[in-house]
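User: Before I run my own analysis I want an independent prediction to cross-check against. Here's the chain; please return only the structure tokens and, at the end, one sentence I can use as a sanity check.
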Amino acid sequence: MEAFARGLAVIRAFSSGHEALSISAVAARAGLTRAGARRLLYTLVELGYAEASGGIFSLTPRVLELGFSYLSSLTLYGLARPLVERLARETNELCTMSVRDGDSVVYIVRAEIRTPLSRAFGLGSRLPLFATSMGRVMLSGLADGDLEKLLARTKLLEFTRYTKTDAARVIDEVARARRQGWCLVKQELELGVCGLSVPVHDADGRVAAAVSISMNMARFDEARTLKEFLPRLQAVAAEIGVALHASRPPGKLVS
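Assistant: Structure tokens:
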């Protein structure tokens, strides 16, 4: 188990734009000795998950198999992907679905017909719950006490000058998302980008995921967005929820 955990730590060392690293850099980022990092890196090379050149290591495309193995087994992903892709075609905007993992949201579906936004966030990206529209609709499913505890242990970083970093203000925004059933966030994570999200509810009424539309502020029209895009987004979320309900065997939860 410990060896497996160390191997995952080595793979994670290459995240956040670190495409090529030395043994020493991997050891430092993964919290390992240099010798331990070297053994694990060469194991990854032998398995085809990494390659080495001049003492510098990088991951190979084969490592994507690990992530797609998860996605292919996730019922929610299979149900939602065609619906999110259809929404992207209808709106000509970047559309995504994400799930919660700890204090982050993770993209598991991402679809766009054109490229109106230059974004660093792709499939599998982890974004902060507190500063994103999808995160706030997922937080809206928490009891007030659980929400307060989560925010108390979360670093509310200032990503832009518009980011709400006061816990009380975030709680107010989450409460608003709970009342409305949707959330609109403008430029709190990235300048020039706003996001509109609604929750996906499972058969038990719990928030299972969030579906979102991201838009460029330069051509954003709030009235048009709420009139035209919000009903489509809500319809997609409802379709995914119905499909989740229908796909769940009696007595079992859909993952």
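Sanity check: The beta strands are 21-22, 50-53, 56-59, 94-101, 104-111, 126-128, 183-186, 193-201, 207-216.
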